[in-house]
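I hope you will forgive my troubling you with a question about protein structure. I set the record out below, with my sincere thanks for your time.
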Amino acid sequence: MNVTFEGPLAASAYEVLGVSAVADDDELRRAYRLRLRETHPDTGGEAALFIQVQRAWEHVGTPEGRAAYDRGRAEVSWAAPSASAPPAGTRPRTKSYGRAGGWRRLRYLRMLTDHLERTVTTREAYDPAVVRSAPWEARRMLAAALAEESTAAAIAELGIGFTAWHDVVAGADAAQKLDHAVLGPRGLYGLASDDFGGAVRFRQGEVIGRSVGDATPVAELLARIRSLSRAARVRFAGAILILPDDDLDEAVTVLGAVRGVPVAVVRRSALRPVLRSGIAGARPLGMTEAFDVRTRLAQAVRVLVP
């Protein structure tokens, strides 16, 4: 059985079902049936929560599945991938600059150190028990770093027709960085990777939901794209916000165009096909124009962590 482990912000299967991790099988089954009734759309519940309850039960509804889930939660590691690890396979990879997630990981470690009021080792900082007991702001920072790394791993598999820049300086404040800029045959795209720890919806071209709070991720992404566009004198074909698969009802949701820039929210697993085919309405680049854009970016782009 394949088990998917939640990120630093996501509720555990037990929390979704509203029981303790040491609940017995009968209590777990009663909680599951109750949560199904509470969240079922036909009785006024939210479809996203109803799906979460079903997925939680898939993880812990059998003794074998529950044992695998508990074992995986204890063994999961959120440590940074090794920079020296050799790439898998022999296929030529995307040319990349910068280190996705690097800036946010540094911020996470500083926030955790401030919270504990002492120095922590890297091993301790990524221990599941330490991560889950950290303040929400620190867990949020780590979740976003992990999201960036997952996106970068997907981009790396696009191949030699693409070039990517990660953790791009897009303003005076490092916090205003652009997570990824990807240049390929379908144009130049600005990407943001995130994980709010819960399902999201859309309203008036923006991402909303209880887990999103007051954040405006689409507006922030577009602002960073405009900043880099002015600095490098390049034109972006589109903007893409990448979120965990479980947080989106559809693989791709196109929100329309803002100042001529098409915007889409995409499941992480659907990112590569979107970058290869482009967002509907985006203008592809000719070979000469693509070379010019790559040259301008190479001269203007600064990355936070080389």
